[in-house]
């Protein structure tokens, strides 16, 4: 499953269809941060950048003196019901942590991919970033749309354009392991502490 | 015994709190780094190995650049150890709050504290009972800051088990991580509070996180191994390491009760203790 590190540059095109869940990628180019508030604003007021081939980053950075200081990913599942319109308008990549629901997995089919970036790695992320601008600044530091230049940000393909979802595979494994644990150690099981 | 000057206590405690906030946001304690390095060396899943490489590089970079490890700098949970000559008073709370406000501006920390109902952000990580401050008598005057991020705190749980179900404690901890999946930024540390009352069990669970995490008792190791069999892995991407350590604290409880609390902590287990010099 693990192949060579794939180099990608925005705007993304059909090359994303070749990616497979589990691939390591380094992404360069431009990304737009967006959390809950920015998604709602974009639905109401329109997308303030060209969405074709664009990449959205689920992130609320710490910005000081026009510099990105810390910019790790936030939990993507909060945007499960807010991402369809972006993919429809041409967004090809979403970066975040924790994965997304089955609806987004289907929306990404034959269109785009979900990239996982390691949660908590805010200093590592900012070392690959240059601040290029800000949109919807009135939403505040965490919720504004920051336009960020990326230089080879290391990512893993979490959900590919063919319905493969590495988070869902781990979830299924965990559920089965827990059933096994309960059989062995539940009431009446051999691990019972009497 | 002479009581120290209140103004001196205020400035020394505010300064120590500021320094503890800064150290906690930027550097991980050595036992935490050892636990991560040990798991990273043993991990066999290639994707999980990549996540560990990012984590260890992030730890190095944050230290080198003097920037926060994670943009979620949490909300500060504060433990004060007070020697006999320092009186308990509101002044201690004011001093800690000042230290937190100062750290929010200068480190900087992300302003995370909001009103629970209106969701209005106070802008400085203090206000209406925040930061949470726990006071204990002690030999030395110290302040410990444990910043708690939301992803991990939101995955924490408490249960009032049947007293005849001691065997169910392990299952409750494992089930907590089953539900949490990748949300608390695993690999996690788990603080488990067993016994006491409803509220005491939760306090014990959080305090258990302050025990050294590079050692475990046989009981803790057994729970940790069971959690790791889930295979959730770093960030929920799958792997051998879901929990880096489980630590347990207990207290006596009612013969008809068995409270169990699990406080989940992300890999960025940030905390720092600074002596308050008077």
Sum up the structure in keywords:
heterodimer; A: about 190 residues; alpha/beta; fumarase; five-stranded mixed beta barrel; two-stranded antiparallel sheet; about 30% strand; globular; disordered C terminus; B: about 280 residues; four-stranded mixed sheet; about 20% strand
Main beta sheet of chain A: 5 strands, mixed, barrel
Could you estimate the helical fraction of the residues of chain A in percent? 10-25%
Class from secondary-structure proportions of chain B: alpha/beta
- The order of strands across the largest sheet of chain B is 2-1-3-8
Strand order of the largest sheet of chain A: 2-3-6-7-9
List the domain count of chain A as a whole number: 1
The name CATH uses for the topology of chain A is fumarase
User: Strand percentage of chain B, roughly?
Assistant: 15-25%
Strand content of chain A: 25-35%
Number of discrete helical segments of chain A: 5
Give the CATH H-level superfamily of chain A.
Fe-S hydro-lyase, tartrate dehydratase beta-type, catalytic domain
What order do the helices and strands of chain A follow?
A: EEHEEEHEHEHEEH
- Assembly context of the chains: heterodimer
The mean pLDDT of chain A is 94
Q: From the alpha-carbon coordinates, what is the Rg of chain A to the nearest angstrom?
A: 19 Å
The CATH architecture assignment of chain A turns out to be: Alpha-Beta Barrel
Q: What value does the Rg of chain B take, in angstroms?
A: 19 Å
Helical percent range of chain B? 25-40%
